[in-house]
Write a structure and sequence with these properties.
CATH topology: 2,3-Dihydroxybiphenyl 1,2-Dioxygenase, domain 1
Oligomer: single chain
Organism: Pedobacter psychrotolerans
InterPro entries: Glyas_Bleomycin-R_OHBP_Dase, MeMalonyl-CoA_epimerase, MMCE/EMCE_epimerase, VOC_core
CATH superfamily: 2,3-Dihydroxybiphenyl 1,2-Dioxygenase, domain 1
Number of strands: 8
GO molecular function: metal ion binding; methylmalonyl-CoA epimerase activity
Strand order of the largest sheet: 2-3-4-1-5-8-7-6
Keywords: Metal-binding
Shape: globular
Family: Belongs to the methylmalonyl-CoA epimerase family.
Order of helices and strands: EHEEEHEHEEE
Distance between the termini: 24 Å
Radius of gyration: 15 Å
Length: about 140
């Protein structure tokens, strides 16, 4: 793992949370994106080397909606940048970590992603992110 790529924060409303985080971080949201496969709208902020991703559910049955119902707004996951997501998934699985998906999938912000089950990471949802390289 190279670095923390971003911290994901579940929010009830991007329209209310984006202005709040723009003031808090003293920077503008640089990108919003719908990830239809995950039933989520996202908004991204960059401050220094760090990024924050706000996540808003678009469906009551989505993982974010369930998280918000159970825990309320707050930190949802920590994402780590990796060079080779398949190799990293194999390494972690061989070391007993539980992957939530067998193959990486397209995520937001031009990334392939895979999540690790919180039960195998001391209660923290971990996301692996690999930048999609275009030829």
């Amino acid at each position: 793992m190279n670095k923390i790529e971003h911290v994901g924060i579940a929010v009830n409303s991007l329209s209310k949370s984006v202005p709040l985080y723009e003031i808090l971080l003293n920077t503008s949201c640089y990108k919003t994106e719908i990830v239809a496969s995950e039933y989520v709208n996202t908004a991204f902020f960059k401050t220094g080397e760090s990024k924050i991703e706000l996540l808003e559910a678009t469906d009551d049955d989505s993982a974010i909606a369930k998280f918000l119902e159970k825990k309320g707004e707050g930190i949802h996951h920590i994402a780590f940048a990796v060079d080779d997501i398949l190799k990293e998934m194999e390494r972690l699985k061989a070391n007993g970590f539980v992957l939530l998906n067998d193959m990486p999938k397209k995520g937001a912000d031009n990334k392939m992603v895979c999540f690790l089950h919180p039960k195998s990471t001391n209660g923290v949802l971990i996301e692996l992110c690999q930048e999609i390289k275009w030829i």
